[in-house]
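Severity: low
Component: inverse-folding endpoint
Summary: output formatting inconsistent between runs
Steps to reproduce: submit the following structure tokens with default settings.
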């Protein structure tokens, strides 16, 4: 959902429902209400940086899993 927000896409209940799974604490309707608002260019930059960091961490974890497996 963050990637959709970063790309400036319109978020509706169908999109939120498709991105959620049964283990989530809140309903798609509650998540959609929480996402109501606008992101400034600065907000988008900050989220983009954090998403890049998350991607980097996930890659490093995969590398560690491989090393542990060996």
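Observed output (run 2 of 3):
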């Amino acid at each position: 959902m963050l990637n959709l927000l970063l790309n400036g896409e319109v978020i509706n209940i169908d999109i939120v429902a498709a991105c959620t799974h049964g283990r989530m604490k809140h309903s798609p309707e509650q998540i959609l209400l929480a996402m109501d608002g606008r992101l400034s260019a600065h907000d988008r930059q900050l989220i983009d940086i954090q998403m890049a960091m998350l991607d980097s961490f996930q890659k490093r974890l995969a590398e560690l899993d491989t090393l542990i497996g060996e």
